[in-house]
Amino acid sequence: MTAYRTLDPEGVKHFLAARRDLAERLGGEAQDWTVREVSDGNLNLVFLVFGPSGTLCVKQSLPHVRVDPDWKMPLDRTAFEAAWLRRIEPLAPGLTPAFLDFDPEQFVLTMECLNGFVTLREALSKGADPIAPSRILGGFVARSAFLTSYFAQPFEAVAPDLAFFSGNTTLTRITVDLVLTDPYREHPRNHWLPALDADVAAMRADPRIIARIGALQERFLTTPQALLHGDLHSGSIMISDRDVRVIDGEFSLYGPIGFDCGLYLAHLAVAHAATNDVARKEALTAAIRTFWRTFCSDFLYLWKTQANGADLYTPTTFSNAPHELDTLRAHFISGVFHDAAGFAAAEIVRRLIGYAQTSDFDHIQDEQSKADRQRVALSFACDLLRDAPADIDAFTERLRQDTDLPSTTSPETT
Amino acid sequence: MTAYRTLDPEGVKHFLAARRDLAERLGGEAQDWTVREVSDGNLNLVFLVFGPSGTLCVKQSLPHVRVDPDWKMPLDRTAFEAAWLRRIEPLAPGLTPAFLDFDPEQFVLTMECLNGFVTLREALSKGADPIAPSRILGGFVARSAFLTSYFAQPFEAVAPDLAFFSGNTTLTRITVDLVLTDPYREHPRNHWLPALDADVAAMRADPRIIARIGALQERFLTTPQALLHGDLHSGSIMISDRDVRVIDGEFSLYGPIGFDCGLYLAHLAVAHAATNDVARKEALTAAIRTFWRTFCSDFLYLWKTQANGADLYTPTTFSNAPHELDTLRAHFISGVFHDAAGFAAAEIVRRLIGYAQTSDFDHIQDEQSKADRQRVALSFACDLLRDAPADIDAFTERLRQDTDLPSTTSPETT
Ligand SMILES: Nc1ncnc2c1ncn2[C@@H]1O[C@H](COP(=O)(O)OP(=O)(O)OP(=O)(O)O)[C@@H](O)[C@H]1O
Ligand SMILES: Nc1ncnc2c1ncn2[C@@H]1O[C@H](COP(=O)(O)OP(=O)(O)OP(=O)(O)O)[C@@H](O)[C@H]1O
Predict the structure, then answer these.
(1) What is the number of structural domains in chain B?
(2) Each residue's pLDDT tens digit, B127-140
């Protein structure tokens, strides 16, 4: 038992040199390795390590939030990320970094280094095509959700994972507070542009919005449909010219599938609201539809072909009711959409007025223009919460209408 | 570590003599104790032990189903019963036997012996008043469900219990198969009077019934609202002149609160269908309403007064939407009722045509009369599954209509 110590680049070399399998992947000796810290998230340390014959990525939890050392936090979050990666990697081959090692004393996860990848957030901000990765992500959520759900296996196979991931209370608390609670109450973690004061006050005073947030809180905590990623925003996705990988599963938990879908949709919608380039808006709209359609068709395909041994909605039980089976499946997917639209709205709200805000509006210099664009994003979210859209077409149509700023708005550089 | 051995009366004495605290409750020495086996359930051994100064009840799991030694079963079910008892006893004081000891090697639970109590099933079959115990049971379900739910505490307090009880896979499998699956498919465990053949075939061929059963299966496995008893029929309740106690929590799991409510309602409804005594039917109808009304008012009262520290539906979040908070609470209770009516129906069906049948019809000698009464019970259940009743009044009204046998039916002794 070695006491936990926070790694620095030298510490990373020591750590890897002591682990033969990992050291062999790098080749040579510790003095031949280069270590680069790339931590850019809020929570953890991330190092990339380059050796003569290979590379590695090393991630370690800190005993506090990385960007706020006063906010203390247990170390176990990399244990949940490691467990998530080991569970999901075989279900969605080639769509995560390869898991290599987890050290439960140092809380260090070692995984494949994604060379030549950037985060989807960065790629999108530079104008990358959003459609192709959205198709892959729709398939990823369908596979990882379906294959960890009660629709794919007997409940006995779900029980150990449900039990284990319910222990991920630290990061679930972050979601419950930062995403689903704080934006709707006074809290020192909230902040926003003064020009949005009236909008925030109106949102909080709207009983329909509060009621929907309440219902979403309940869905989040009491609907363990599948193992979720739990933080599927564009910073948790890395892309290269040809590939997409989902990283950072430390928020993983059993929950409503619409939560993962909603977070992804939220970030596309925010990017849409943040630009006034019409072609870009169209590409992002197409990406939203592509994500959702791929999710639906892949999920339904898996349901029809890979439900062996499951307890729920089995073809045997439904042998006299095949039509009802189709109806129930469609009803389930509609429920996922309903959840997704709600959670997307909550994610948009929190990225505008909560603790960890989106960088999508950072390119807008003029504060008035920035506030105008944030206002339309907020009003789209409030609209979704007030009155749930029936389907993805209604969702994108509202996005178009709500974020179509009047032409009097001063143009900004995109 | 002592290897597991099945107890007999002598073994019970040995077991208790070796445990000072327990032996002292009985007083005297082992030779002064009387042991009486009272096992009458399907699964376990139960012994009552009488000593000069006290009594005990000793329950041990067998490595198989008690009434079917070929049906092998893990021993851990008394561990879940013990955990349930320890969790629920302080939440519903005086409504369970007192927990005294659990031996995890012998799988022996020792608890207070309920002297002068009989099962509610036995009491009802002898004409006992069903209303007073139903009021107490409504309060019991309200307290045990509310106080273990996300409405009463932060989710971090729920997580360890959710994790632990999700391990109760053996008995959850019994529920999934025997209650929610087998009756709707060919299975050697099913059996029924030949006169019901056409009714069973019609039930299985009805797509609406199959669809509702499918939805109930999903609710059961993916709606962890509260810690359930999991088998709350009249044989899991003991009553004396003045007291009610809930026993036998070995099926406990996190699930939809309507499951506990539904099982209790089912057994009152079956008793109603099994008698043709009008006054008795009225008393049972009143008991059904009393149970449900007490559950609702107690649950809502707790929600308004004991929700401190919870994450869901907090008065702080809803300070601008008090009316919506009331609406959401009422909506939640309606959802519990909807579940309860469905699970009640499933329980009635399985007690008529599945593995472990009810004894309520045993007093009817004439097979035709018996089949007629079972048929009305079955048709009431099918009616509930086909078309959900809106509220408890609709539930009891249908029970009255569906089980009101035409007067041509041959009378039987009650
Ligand atoms: N396997 C990898 N290969 C290459 N780079 C990676 C890898 N994993 C993470 N990174 C880089 O490290 C950065 C931080 O990683 P990650 O998002 O997992 O950290 P985090 O602190 O948990 O973030 P958050 O606060 O969003 O939870 C990523 O943005 C990415 O640039
Ligand atoms: N604490 C107690 N005091 C007195 N008698 C008890 C007590 N607990 C159980 N009994 C008696 O033992 C019988 C069997 O108990 P119980 O229902 O717990 O057993 P079981 O085998 O688990 O039943 P099931 O098959 O319904 O799960 C009861 O019907 C009751 O008569």
Answers:
(1) 2
(2) 999 999 999 999 99
Q: Report residue B358's pLDDT band, with 50, 70 and 90 as the boundaries.
A: very high
Return the structure tokens found at A305.
């072909």
Do A102 and A222 lie in one domain? The reply is: no
Question: Best mutation site among A182, A314, A320, A326 for testing chain B: the one with the most B CBs within 10 Å?
Answer: A320
Note whether B106 and B133 are same-domain residues: no
* B184 — pLDDT class (breaks 50, 70, 90): very high
> Which position has the higher pLDDT, A307 or B259?
B259
Distance from the B205 Cα atom to the nearest Cα atom in chain A, whole angstroms: 6
- Same domain, yes or no: A107 and A239: no
CATH for A97:
3.30.200.20
pLDDT of residue B414: 42
For A263-281, what is the mean pLDDT?
96
Same domain, residue pair A237 and A370: yes
Residues 164-203 of B with CB under 8 A from A: 164, 166-167, 169, 172-173, 176, 181, 184-185
pLDDT confidence of residue A411: 47
Total residues belonging to chain B: 414
The residues pairing with B112 across neighbouring beta strands, listed in sequence order, are B56
- Asked if B221 and B363 sit in the same domain, the reply is yes
Unique residue bearing structure tokens 């879908």: A261
Q: What's the residue count for chain A?
A: 414
pTM of the model: 0.95
Q: What is the CATH number of the domain that holds B298?
A: 3.90.1200.10
**Residue A286 falls within a domain, yes or no?**
yes
> A106, A2 in Cβ contact below 8 A?
yes
Q: How many CB atoms lie within 10 A of CB A265?
A: 31
- Is the dihedral angle over the CA atoms A359, A365, A371, A376 positive or is it negative? negative
Nearest-atom number in ligand 1 for the CA of A115 is 4
Tokens of A48: 């990339």
Same domain, A56 and A141: no
Distance CA(A145)–CA(A139), nearest Å, equals: 10
Look at residue B413 and tell me if it is in a domain. no
Mean pLDDT across B317-338 = 94
**Residue type at A234 in one-letter notation:** S
A248 dihedral zone (left: phi>0; alpha: psi -120 to 50; beta):
left
Domain that holds residue B268: 118-402
